[in-house]
């Protein structure tokens, strides 16, 4: 087993830098034996690449880091019929390169590729392809999951379906994803994109809703950045016949090459903290959600800290699983709104930004939406119960029966399962 004491500053923060703690011991996969660690009963925090933004992977205890992009490629197995078996610690970048060489591709790539497969599947995964293919978890055939006794089992829609439903998008609360079998799609090197500029958020909301009603679009994203509102609609393939004005282009390898807006935004923040969050509302509800954001945009703190608004459309496959904690529940078409801020290392500024996020979360819930759990969301027990209801009880049962009480126990989802049940027969 590989474990070591870590120097003071290494692993000191999550990606957002909001929470700070220095783990006493860092275990690394694949050299660590995860089943031995998980069965030890010691408090353990799971981490992929650590890019979640609100302390989800921060601990002053023991950390199990699965991200191992350099060694992962040797462990990939092509199962045929478009299925690929991947270690959780692989990066999307490595996986997409591996697949492209074989004329295949990941159906939905995130726009930043140096994150772990296991960590992203543990939050849900969305991207510019989501308008066609839904969430990344919609393309998982099965996962190998290790529980708190160290037992490993394959879970799918038919084998251990409850574990499957809770582990994907479940922030590591239902066990450690060790490997995943993913569906792939044919690789198209080129994408035809059409950019549109919008004068107002209202106009952008209308445009996005119209695209959400269509089922012939392969790519969609929209941004408010540096005062400009731009949407991009795309079709895979290099059909130049579609390019009839200056706003059209044929680009290779989206999102890995062209789609650098998020990456640039992510890494250009100096010594400020990143407070990112995404809200996902059912199609038809973007306008009121954006109106709430717009009302806050001219006031402190959003007028100082906002770097970008980011919009995606998520169209789920017809047979989609109703995952317990993913940002899309059962709605066939949803729209995600990312609110990405960078804030001074100042408690008053972060508290003010949290207040804004709280207001937006309330609005998102009123509109029938959900937060994306990788982000900065203050989920108190009442809000958690309102969002996830009876699934919190299911999670408590799963964690108890699979002896997972010591794994990721710091997460709000888990503390909400320890609340006194208040459903009084409502569920
Ligand atoms: C620059 C940037 C760009 C992003 N772009 C996108 C995007 O386009 N689309 C999108 O959907 N998201 C995006 N995100 C959010 C991203 O998907 C999440 O932050 C995701 O968690 C990152 O994966 P990770 O490997 O860093 O996971 P981590 O942050 O390490 O872990 C996330 C959660 O999963 C748990 N976990 C990690 N590994 C495992 C495992 N193997 N088994 C069980 N539980 C595990 C952790 O305990 C934690 O609760 C972006 C984030 C950043 C910082």
TrEMBL record:
Transmembrane segments: none annotated. Pfam families: FAD_binding_4. Gene3D superfamilies: 3.30.465.10. Residues 19-187 form the FAD-binding PCMH-type domain. InterPro entries: FAD-bd_PCMH (IPR016166), FAD-bd_PCMH-like_sf (IPR036318), FAD-bd_PCMH_sub2 (IPR016169), FAD-linked_Oxase-like_C (IPR016164), FAD-linked_Oxidoreductases_BP (IPR050432), Oxid_FAD_bind_N (IPR006094). Keywords: FAD, Flavoprotein, Oxidoreductase. Belongs to the oxygen-dependent FAD-linked oxidoreductase family. This is FAD-binding protein.
């Amino acid at each position: 087993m590989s474990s070591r004491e870590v120097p003071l500053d290494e692993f000191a923060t999550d990606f957002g830098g909001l929470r700070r703690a220095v783990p006493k011991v860092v275990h690394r996969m694949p050299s660590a034996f995860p089943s031995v660690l998980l069965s030890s009963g010691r408090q353990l925090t799971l981490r992929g690449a650590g890019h979640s933004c609100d302390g989800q992977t921060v601990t002053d205890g023991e950390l199990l880091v699965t991200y191992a992009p350099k060694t992962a490629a040797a462990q990939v197995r092509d199962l045929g019929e478009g299925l690929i078996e991947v270690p959780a610690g692989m990066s999307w970048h490595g996986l997409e390169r591996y697949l492209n060489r074989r004329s295949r591709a990941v159906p939905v790539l995130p726009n930043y590729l140096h994150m772990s497969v296991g960590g992203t599947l543990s939050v849900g995964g969305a991207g510019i392809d989501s308008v066609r293919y839904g969430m990344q978890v919609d393309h998982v055939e099965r996962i190998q999951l290790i529980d708190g006794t160290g037992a490993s089992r394959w879970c799918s829609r038919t084998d251990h379906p409850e574990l499957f439903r809770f582990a994907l998008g479940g922030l590591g609360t239902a066990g450690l994803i060790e490997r995943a079998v993913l569906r792939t799609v044919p690789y198209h090197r080129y994408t035809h994109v059409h950019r549109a500029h919008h004068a107002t958020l209202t106009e952008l909301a209308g445009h996005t809703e119209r695209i959400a009603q269509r089922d012939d679009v392969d790519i969609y994203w929209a941004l408010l950045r540096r005062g400009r509102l731009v949407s991009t609609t795309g079709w895979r393939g290099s059909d130049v016949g579609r390019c009839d004005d200056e706003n059209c282009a044929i680009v290779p390898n989206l999102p890995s090459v062209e789609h650098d807006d998020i990456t640039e935004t992510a890494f250009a923040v100096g010594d400020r903290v990143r407070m990112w969050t995404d809200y996902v509302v059912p199609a038809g509800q973007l306008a009121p959600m954006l109106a709430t954001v717009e009302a806050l945009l001219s006031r402190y703190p959003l007028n100082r800290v906002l770097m970008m608004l980011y919009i995606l459309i998520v169209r789920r496959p017809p047979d989609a699983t109703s995952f317990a904690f993913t940002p899309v529940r059962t709605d066939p078409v949803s729209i995600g709104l990312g609110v990405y801020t960078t804030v001074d290392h100042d408690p008053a500024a972060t508290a003010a930004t949290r207040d804004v996020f709280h207001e937006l979360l309330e609005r998102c819930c009123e509109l029938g939406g959900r937060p994306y759990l990788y982000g900065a969301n203050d989920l108190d027990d009442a809000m958690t119960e309102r969002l996830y209801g009876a699934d919190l009880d299911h999670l408590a049962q799963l964690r108890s029966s699979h002896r997972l009480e010591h794994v990721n126990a710091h997460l709000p989802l888990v503390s909400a399962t320890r609340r006194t049940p208040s459903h009084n027969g409502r569920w």
